[in-house]
Amino acid sequence: MDEPTANYPNTPDWLQANPSYNATEDATPASNQGDEITHTGSMFLQRLQKVAGITSLLLSPVAIALVGLWVSNESMGGGGVSWSQGESGRVFNWHPVLMVTSYALMTVGALIFRVSGTSTYQASITSSLYARSSTSTTAYPRKRGIMKYIHGTIWSLDFVFGLIAMLAVFKSHNDPISGYIANLYSFHSWVGILVLSLFTLQFLVGIISFSRLSGSSRLGTPLLMEIHKYTGTYIHILATATIMLGIQEKEGFVGCSYKVNAPDLFPALNYGLIPSACKISHGLGIVILAMGICTTFAMARFPVL
Fold this sequence. Notes:
Helices cover 65% and strands 1% of the residues. It is mainly α. The model is unreliable at 1-6, 11-28 and 132-137 (pLDDT under 50).
């Protein structure tokens, strides 16, 4: 087995023994091929995440427009908004308007670092992808500082909008002229209270640990930052589910069914009979769901393998 291979006349040239031949000179190292595939796949995934983030941002004003159109429908407590006694239906309409607006702003606040290219995750991914090249990543502390300010401002607005939205519910349910309605009896309301509580905790931790306004931004350790990022995405998912539960609950009060006199074997043929308010709320729900999916994907932290 250790004897040198002889050159035989009928043996192809490429099988003839050649002491000067080195296989590594003509072969591409497998490790380099694997690195190139990983590099291409990671860059493609980054582009998909960017597209998802931009899509979610574009859907944000669509959601606000749809909720405004929805509460303007006559079946929504007479249509429009109010803060006067005796108009509990219109007072309640502030709740979906402010909550959907808050959700749209939350989406912008959550994605502000990713779409601006100031995410620490993106910086780490870029460093890994270009570790073999002469390209170096440059930090933009000033730009990131601006994004942090925008992020904090948006979450502050969300907090205020959330409180007013909750106040609108209690005000409309405790109207002596329109009549009293029980509070916090539905599953939607229970989940909503949980989400608002988590949001408030997240907001306070962000101010205390990462805000320069409190003068204690150095309290934010890397571990706490990772927890902050995780819980932020988690709260956004919960907010998505809560809004969809709220839409479903309100549709139950409005009444989205239609009268049939025979087996409804092909429901799609009768979708035109669905009340207009429900068509709008269905569309709003689809937009909210799409925003939740796109935002969650855009915020995901995929490892470079």
